[in-house]
Design brief:
- A nine-stranded parallel beta sheet has the order 2-3-4-5-8-9-10-1-11. Strands 6-7 form a two-stranded antiparallel sheet.
- With about 300 residues, it is of the alpha/beta class.
- The protein is globular, with a radius of gyration of 17 Å.
- Helix 6 runs parallel beside helix 7.
- The protein contains eleven helices and eleven strands.
- It has one domain: Homocysteine-binding-like domain (TIM Barrel, Alpha-Beta Barrel).
- Helix 6 links the parallel strand 3 and strand 4.
- The protein is about 45% helix and about 15% strand.
Length: about 300
């Protein structure tokens, strides 16, 4: 029987910074949703043409907490509406009706900073706002780069209660793949969310080696699992409210190198693979090529 793999897109933020030629800001690429949405649309289209069957809205940093800190709360709806329009237009222009659009529920205050995560009720309230503005326009909701159990529980709860198909992805400690960046055990995180109704549980925005190390535990814990890694040398320099300017890209993760990791996850049993920060359309195209050549059926969820 032919095996199927869901192929996600890659990272938006770093690729958009490169394509725009602009210096990164605390809102990363979200500002482009207002200033240059066609650039975002073009990147979505490039990922589709590379073989991705799921493209994610470019709204990662447009959370209530981040906008209040780094810009204006008034930008919440305009950024999300622009992100929805760009993704929808890219899919329409591609002519590929089998491509799905994923919403995004990210860490609310900062990536890789679990100590800044709000309390449980605040998390739930903010994720409900994010779900409400996205739900009518997406096919599935991706809770991603989640570094604490309480954010994971709140994000999945907000999405599932709205009737959305839901997937969650945790980010792990690169020095200890058995724990989230909060120090909480990955097995505890899986147990906390799996009864809430997610369709899949993944790990992302960690090194490829970390994703590989975590895959056996995921496969033992849940039926549908996956992974998509970043290409940073280290995330230590990143500060809350800062930019990615201080983060360096690994030189050993070109398309062929990254695809070798991703294909390994698929062979191990992962049903969903893709890319995160520093993983562009060329990486996704190489993953797609290897999957097809190996006889896999590349699908959406």
């Amino acid at each position: 029987m032919t095996k199927s793999v869901t192929l996600l897109d890659g990272g938006m933020g770093q690729e958009l910074i490169r394509r725009s030629g602009l210096a990164p800001t605390p809102l990363w690429a979200a500002r482009l949703m207002l200033d240059n949405p066609k650039l975002v649309e073009a990147l979505h289209l490039d990922f589709i043409e590379a073989g991705a069957k799921v493209i994610s809205l470019n709204n990662y940093v447009a959370t209530p907490a981040r906008l209040a800190r780094d810009a204006s709360p008034d930008l919440f709806e305009p950024i999300h509406k622009a992100a929805i329009k760009a993704a929808g237009s890219a899919r329409d222009k591609s002519g590929r009706n089998d491509v799905m659009i994923s919403g995004c529920l990210p860490p609310l205050v900062a990536s890789y900073k679990p100590e800044l995560a709000p309390g449980a009720q605040d998390c739930l309230d903010q994720y409900r706002r994010l779900v409400a503005v996205q739900k009518s326009a997406v096919d599935i909701m991706l809770c991603e780069t989640i570094a604490t159990i309480r954010e994971g529980v709140a994000a999945v709860t907000a999405s599932v209660e709205a009737g959305l198909r839901t997937v969650i992805s945790f980010t792990l400690d690169d020095k200890n793949p058995a724990v989230l960046r909060s120090g909480e055990a990955l097995t505890d995180a899986v147990n906390a969310v799996k009864t809430l109704g997610p369709e899949a549980i993944m790990v992302n925005c960690s090194s490829p080696e970390t994703v590989t190390a975590a895959m056996p535990a995921l496969l033992k814990s849940f039926a549908a699992v996956g992974g998509y890694a970043n290409g940073f040398q280290s995330i230590t320099p990143l500060r809350a409210g800062g930019t990615t300017a201080g983060l360096k890209t690994r030189a050993d993760l070109g398309p062929a190198d990254y695809a070798s990791y991703a294909f390994g996850w698929a062979k191990a049993g992962a049903k969903i693979i893709g890319g995160c920060c520093e993983v562009g359309p060329h990486h996704i195209a190489e993953i797609h090529r290897r999957l097809v050549n190996a006889g896999y059926k590349v699908t959406a969820f």
